[in-house]
Amino acid sequence: MMTMNIDNSIFKTLHKNEAWMYTNVSALSNVDFSTTTEVDFTEIKKYDIAQDNPFVVFVNGAFQEGYSRLEEGISINSDTVGDIGSRSDSLIPRGDSDTVTITGNQNKTVHILQIITGDTPASCFGNVLVHAAQDESISLAETHIAVTDQNHVFMPCTEVVAEQKSNVTIVRSIRGSKEAYHLGSLHVTQHESSTVQTHTITLGGKRVRNEVYAYLDGEHCESNFDGMYMLGKDQLVDNHLRVEHNEPNGNSREFYKGVLDENARSVFTGRIYVKEDAHQTDAKQTNQNILLSDDADVSARPQLEIYADDVLCTHGATTGEIDEEAMLYLRTRGIPKDAARTLLIYAFLNESLDELTDDSFRSVLVEELLSNLPGGEFIRALYL
Amino acid sequence: MNKQINTTNDPKKEAAEALPGGGMLLSSSNPVEEDTALLKETFKEKYKWGFVTDIEADSAPPGLDESTIAFISAKKDEPEWLLEWRLNAYRHWLTMEEPDWAHLKYNKPNYDEIIFYSAPKSLADGPKSLDEVDPELLETYKKLGIPLAEHAALAGVAVDAVFDSVSVGTTFKDKLEEVGIIFCPISEAVHSHPELVKKYLGTIVPYSDNYYATLNSAVFTDGSFVYIPKGVKCPMDLSTYFRINAKSSGQFERTLIIAEEGASVSYLEGCTAPMRDENQLHAAVVELIALDDADIKYSTVQNWYPGDENGVGGIYNFVTKRGKCQGDRSRITWTQVETGSAVTWKYPSCILLGDDSVGEFYSVALTNNYQQADTGTKMIHIGKNTRSTIISKGISAGQGQNIYRGLVRIQKGAENARNYTQCDSMLMGDRCGAHTFPYIEVKNKTAKAEHEASTSKIGEDQLFYCNQRGISTEDAINMIVNGFCKEVFRELPMEFAVEARRLLEVSLESSVG
Fold first, then answer.
1. Cα of A3 vs its chain's centroid, Å
2. Which terminus of chain B, N or C, has less C-beta within 10 A?
3. Where do the domains of chain A lie?
């Protein structure tokens, strides 16, 4: 089966860079990705969560025509990479894979399933190009899922061009095995009056890096980048964003929140860059964390780099336990301690999922969240 | 002729000219444009305190090698162990690279051209009283407005003034001695209290700490030494003025303050420097140690020469300041007003080791013209119930770049640790920059860390509101800036608060105001 033999020595020293200082993936440099792996295709059906929608399936970076449902505007090429990625200083390796290109109006969410599997470690890329022309609207859901407990490394790269007055929504969820490495990037170029929103939901993986690079190259751009994570034993998520306001009147929001249990770790680095003369920029950046365990660990770097004076930029980061007052409120109403705790965590995280407009994707993610959440059974019982 | 009559008969214009702010209120052209122009004019303020005192210097040859260090050590008649320590630092320094992670652009200093030791010759023997001090020096201090001599008594401030590496006069020494406080030049303390210096020197900032601190350890010339014995509250604010004189003499002060159990002290540091064309390096180290229930307040007003309006010249201020709250319930407060220097690289930090200890950092940093300041703090929470507060206010004007860089680290054992960080930036003009790079690391779930930041400019509506009420634009700007910095100024001791406000006004107001 298709797997890429990459030069894994780059992973060895990645954490010596400032941008990677909290995330060490050097273990990958010792993994042998060269052996051919066996793939179990029967898994695919299980993840076809929206059967009326277009469905694009990749297994270890290779397009699977027989399982996919392509519609107008969705095409597959091999060995194509976009050029937006080269604007960034991302250190994640890029490489060739089958590439899906999405154009035209896609009002039914296009579901792209990237399965990483095999009984030996696999390394693969996943390239997606999204081009929303003027006034077009594209909705996309990416599911990145490692199905076998191996040191797989998956390096997805999605590049988005949003032309004038277009609208792009991307929901990227990282699920599955808690042994895999996901080093993903999302590169966005926005033109005048375009709207882009991305939701990055991290529930699986051992080391997950979610990079977002956004270039607001036109006036009156609207950008919303948010993220949610619920992690447990030995998991780490590193959300790394750079939002460049290059033209006036841009409006951007970064909102990342998560809950960490056991020895889970969260890293957040957000850089808002406002170019000279990009006046009337309104940018906000927030990272909120709840720690459930004594061994959990949070590092946050909400950064502003501003070269224009007529701007409104704020950032904030909070880290702590569950709000004691909210606990008291629930306890005084006769709700047992564990239940109250679970309710509050669920409410905290579910806020992000509520943003998702597509019911089928939301319910799957809620389900996965509940299975990761300590006491999730209790919430499920409430719903059923 | 017609023109003249028109001009004088135009009541609008006449009134406008009468206004100190240039009459933006009554102007019929685009008020925003005029406002920007006025702001630009406002920030062109010259450095008022640039002058050179002509004193023959007794200097080491430029450049640095082991013999330079031996020369400095011999000059100061230092014990063997200190020379050894300096040489260790120097040898380590040779293995280090000058850091470039800061958000700064400047030409790195040429260490072969720096004169690492320079003392005013007439003082080489060390004066015993003010009468022995070179009158030219005293004149210099007068110009600077340092409350030495009779001023000292009036202001109630004991001054240990450093003029180019050698301390020239210490007042109120007797009064301090009565309660057992040691306040003297560190070169003197090496001889009079070697056991204390040996015990604490380099324990907070080890000689291998960072490039500039290591350099300082190798070549430090002088600085202050303060020891507050158990239970003593220092009866007055201690003060020192650093002043860079003699061409190309980088200054390398080293300050060490020890507060024993239950002691408390407030220490003030203020600086002005003469005008110069070439860049001068200043790499100081300050170490603070607070034992159980001790309280140290360290305040700085820094107004070194920032370079001219084209960014030529100015001081490089690469300073390492660190305090350790070693004892339970101890407290260290850093307050700084940074208006000078071409390049500032400074992160006064607190290591909160003792349970219930408190670290505080209050900062106002102003960058005008081509000044750059990468400054902030580190709060390392190790003990239980430790608390830290960071309030940072950055003001950028002209082409100035102002960077807040701060680390809040809450270690695993720091139960119930609390941090609150607020960093606000104000931009004046459209060619300056304000940047915020916080690092927040939390390893304890009972800890709470909060970070808030905002960036704004002086609003047209705010200026309009003031103008409407008869307040000139300059006054309005000063008022708004003062309000913006109020949270920091109120942490400064009285005399410093006054000076800080004046400094900020000098840096901001036009020659008209």
1. 23
2. N
3. 10-321, 323-384
What is the residue type of B431? Answer: R
Helix axes B211-219 and B80-94, enclosed angle (nearest 10): 150
Could you state, in chain order, the average pLDDT of each consecutive group of 10 residues for chain B (513 residues)? 41 40 39 53 54 57 84 86 93 91 86 75 47 56 50 42 47 76 87 92 92 92 89 83 45 90 89 55 92 94 79 86 96 91 92 96 91 94 96 91 94 93 88 91 89 82 91 86 87 75 66 26
d(CA A250, CA A259): 30
How buried is residue A374: exposed, middle or buried, by Cβ count under 10 Å (0-12/13-18/19+)? middle
Tens digit of pLDDT for each residue in A161-220? 999 999 999 999 999 999 999 999 999 999 999 999 999 999 999 999 999 999 999 999
Which two three-digit tokens encode residue A48? 């076809």
A window 319-378, beta carbon within 8 A of B: 319-321
Number of H helices, E strands in chain A: 5, 19
Cα-trace Rg, chain A: 20
Give yes or no for A292 touching B (CB within 8 A).
Answer: yes
Pairing of strands A251-260, A281-291: parallel
Query: B447 and A298 in contact by Cβ < 8 A?
Result: no
**CB-CB under 8 Å, B457 with A297:** no
Burial per residue of B399-433, b for 16 or more beta-carbon CB atoms within 10 angstroms, e otherwise:
bbbbbbbbbbbbbeebbebbbebebbbbbbbbbbb
Name the residue facing B431 among A276, A296, A313 (closest C-beta): A276
Two tokens at B394?
């950055």
ipTM of the complex: 0.86
A360 CA to chain B: closest CA distance, Å? Answer: 35
Nearest CA in chain B to A320: B448
Shortest alpha-carbon distance between residue B416 and chain A (Å)? 10
DSSP secondary structure string, B68-121? HHHHHHHHTT--HHHHHHHHHHHHHHHT------SS---PPP-TTT-B--EEEG
Distance CA B362, CA B334 (A): 6
Contacts of residue A310 in chain B, CB cutoff 8 Å?
430, 457
Of the candidates A18, A293, A299, which has its C-beta nearest B440's C-beta? A299
Asked if A321 lies within 8 A of B425 by C-beta distance, the reply is no
For residue A96, give both structure tokens: 């060739």
- Is residue B226 within 8 A of residue B296, CB to CB? The reply is no
Angle formed by the axes of helices B460-468 and B473-489, nearest 10°: 110
| Residue B321 buriedness (CB in 10 A; 0-12 / 13-18 / 19+) | buried
- Nearest by CB to B438, which of A301, A307, A313? A301
Interface test with A, best of B395, B451, B452 (most A CBs within 10 A): B451
Distance, in Å, from the CA atom of A344 to the CA atom of A329, rounded to the nearest integer, reads: 11
Which residue on chain B is closest to A307 by alpha carbon?
B433
Per DSSP, the three-state class of A198 is strand
| Residue A5 confidence class, pLDDT cut points 50, 70, 90 | low
Phi, psi of A371 (to 5 degrees): -75, -20
The answer for residues whose C-beta is within 8 angstroms of residue B79's C-beta and 6 or more apart is B190, B194
Q: How far apart are CA B22 and CA B13, in angstroms?
A: 10
